[in-house]
Protein 1
Amino acid sequence: MNTYTTLLVEEADHVLVVKLNRPDALNALNSQMFDDLKAFFSKDYKDYTFGSVIVTGTGEKAFAAGADIKELHGMKAADAERLSSKGQSIYKLIEEFHAPVIAAVNGFSLGGGCELAMACHFRVASTKAKFGQPEVNLGIIPGYGGTQRLVQLIGKGKAMELLMTGDMVGAEEALRLGLVNYVVEPEQLLDKAKELALKINAKGPLAIKGVIRCVNGYFVPGVDGFALEVRSFGELADSADFTEGTSAFIEKRKPVFKGN
Ligand code: COA
């Protein structure tokens, strides 16, 4: 198991639980945490197969309370653009990760924390979760994809309101808006996320990768998502997993997928 300065990683039953671990700063995302997340998704677990990832926060209070404001303070245009590009590219790694990445939002999910949750494939929240993009309170805007993914998830009007007011919404409101898929009691949060992860882990991993690729394709300018679906559908038909899946159905047994 790899070790990180700002992340705790635990694995059980092919589910990796990644805990953002700066509880004294409400898990604020500093440059070290960005480096750790990048190493996790682009290097250390790049080829992680037959499994899912759950991202959550340590402590009882926060998923992540945003970018580390102490690091932002004093920043000028060139540094800010570099940071925004870096944050966007790391969150894109998460969004495009081949295996499911589920956010288990346990508390404050603000600014870069909300953007991180939105970069995950879907979100489960505890009743204590609070979501918001309060950057305007600091005289800036979200820089890690928040202006785009919030619109994608909840629509333009409500996104405009939340981005302009900086208001937080609670878990139930987030559920109503479509920002999260489930709201559960705090002590059930990881169990709920794991239940979903295990359900997905039983499917063909290549098919899950195809779902992620095609759904993401919907949002990429210039990409014809329907054409991408045709191509992916065709590629999957050549896989041993497809033969296994259809054979298992006909033989009335559970499929054993091998990821090829
Ligand atoms: N960056 C750096 N440190 C942060 C932080 C952030 N985004 N959010 C919280 N912290 C730190 C606080 O400075 C404090 O540290 P200290 O005890 O050394 O002073 C500690 O975490 C606890 O936060 P505190 O503000 O005392 O907790 P609270 O319960 O009173 O308020 C919040 C919680 C989330 C409402 C408040 O911390 C907050 O507004 N944070 C900033 C959110 C934000 O604007 N995020 C977007 C950044 S672009």
Protein 2
Amino acid sequence: MPLKTELCDLLEIEYPILQGGMAWVSTAELAAAVSEAGGLGIIGAGHAPAEWVRDEIRKARERTNKPFGVNVMLMSPHVEEVMQVVLQEKVPVITTGAGSPGKYIPALKENGTRVIPVIPSVALAKRMEKAGADAVVAEGMESGGHIGELTTMAMVPQIVDAVEIPVIAAGGIADGRGLVAALALGAKGIQVGTRFMCAEECTIHPNVKEFILKAKDRDTVITGRITGHPVRCLKNKLTKEFEDMEERRVSVEELEALGAGSLKKAMVDGDIEMGSVMAGQIAGMVKEIKPARAIIEEIIAGAEQTLKSLEAVR
Ligand code: TUI
């Protein structure tokens, strides 16, 4: 069976494709659809309260018997309670973002939960391996949302060389060519975010999907470097205001005030002018809204096609 890796055995999934657990984007509907199609769907907890996370886990379980995950945003004010819910509900896999989940790993492992931190550097990958992580997602700065400094291409092989646990590549990957490239760099799988924002089952506002479909290669921008939390979004009125304020060297507090609530404003209310439309550089390649299953089938078929064409190169 082609395109199976050790990640498929570790997570009990058919294809080595994870769906990014995006705040305000990755609800039970999307996660369950991805898992049903043979990938690993992941609910994005973001800053949501623990009871919202519990409801989404239960909704996902009503829709699929297959394994799925929860992404825990470690900067959330509700992180302790969310971790409790993940433990109580015996979620098979968690990914984490924006920090180190080290102190939670022993309890999660005891519970049988696979722990996969999302990290942006070799040093953090090594720290996570030492802390007991089952795998890491190496997320390049091509990604949408909160990002590090390194690109996927430069970072993935360096992390592959530095750790023994499986590495999952993320950032700038949306099709079969990206999957094969990631495998060539030594990754055992991929995490895909932006492409799944245009899945039919994704519950974000249609305005955001349309905005992604129209995006071109240079339509994202990084703002918030001076706050210490750089974020990649599609360019709009809000990112222009951020850039103007950063040029005027306004305070971090003022910048944070402008950003507060802006992700929900985009994803739920559909305000693509003053909302924060977090999306990766690969948005320029997303051209269709399709069911999650079709996206996964397209990635796998494309990867097989790419492998065939590489044979010709040899
Ligand atoms: O977490 C993400 N992407 C995100 S989170 C998010 S919501 C948000 N809310 C408010 C402000 C900013 C974002 C939108 N997108 N990706 C995974 C990721 N994790 N990228 C970078 C990191 C990271 C950073 C530092 C992981 C570990 C880390 O460790 C620091 C340390 O020394 O412990």
